[in-house]
Amino acid sequence: MPTDQPTVEIRKDAQEHVLTLRQTPQLESIRELYEAAISLAETATRVVVDCEGIEHIGGSALQILLALQTALAGSGGTIALRGITPRIAQYLAVAGVSDHLPQTGLEGNSCPRQC
Questions:
Q1: Closest C-alpha to 50, from 29, 6, 81, 89
Q2: Could you give the number of structural domains in the chain?
């Protein structure tokens, strides 16, 4: 269902770009995430994806985040997820991508698999 609220937001903090997912990306809104990822791939070196507003991450969103990770890594950049639920952490582990999309603490410091 379309909404007037953006599903993603990008902001620049002192040392990183923060990509906030305001709601679980759905098929209707996945293009917004895709366009944000392209923008970040062109301009950012460190991206933190704030997942505190979502309960699930689908395959399309996961593919976009993995493509962003690949683009950032190619230019020496990094990506990390913040605020993921245990359900999302389990999904990432089952999908075999936890090492490519590591978790980070609120301070932006990488933390072990189980934050």
A1: 81
A2: 1
